[in-house]
Amino acid sequence: MDNRKNFGPVSFGLRWLFALLLVGLIFNPTGYSYYHWLAESGSEMLPLKFIGGVVLLIGAIIYLRATWRSIGWLGITLVLALLGGLVWLLVDMGWLDLGAADVVGWLTIVISSTILAVGMSWSHIRRRMTGQLDADDVDE
C-alpha cells in the first residue's frame, strides 16, 4: 500500500487543529480551560475533573512523546526559532502588539501547538522530502 498520499496540508492542518484544541483546553487566556476549572471551582465535581485531567494528560503525552521522538531538542529549538523570528517580524512590521497579556497567551498556544503538530507530522514530511522511512525501536 502506498502511504505517500496520506500526508498533505489537510492532514497537517488536522494535526495542528487537534494540538491547538488540546493546548487550548489545558490553558487559554479566556478563563475557560481545565486550569481555570480546577483553580476556580474548588472541590466540586472532583471525579469529573479527574477524568478530564486524565483525558487531557493522555492527549498531551501522545503529542509530546511523538514530538520528542521525531524531532527532539534540536527540532523543537529550530521550530521555536523559526516561529520566534516570525513573531519578531510581525511585531517589527507593526502587525502584532505584544503589550496585551492575551496576545502573548494566544501566541504561546499557537506556537506550542505548531511545535506539537510538526512533531506529529515530521515522519510524514521527512518521507515526502527524502523517500526515507522512520521506524521506532522494536526492542522497547
What's the quick description here?
The protein has helices at residues 9-26, 34-40, 46-92, 101-130. It has 140 residues and is mostly helical.
Show the helix and strand layout.
Layout: H1 9-26, H2 34-40, H3 46-92, H4 101-130
Helix pairs in contact: 1-3, 1-4, 3-4
Key terms for this structure?
single chain; 140 residues; mainly alpha; flat
Overview of the structural elements:
By secondary structure, this protein is mainly alpha-helical. The chain has one domain (8-130). It has helices at 9-26, 34-40, 46-92, 101-130. The chain is flat, with a radius of gyration of 18 Å. It starts with 8 loop residues before the first helix and ends in a 10-residue tail after the last helix.
Number of domains: 1
The count of DSSP E runs of length 2 or more, i.e. the number of strands, is 0
Write down the overall mean pLDDT. Answer: 88
- Based on CA inertia axes, which overall geometry fits? flat
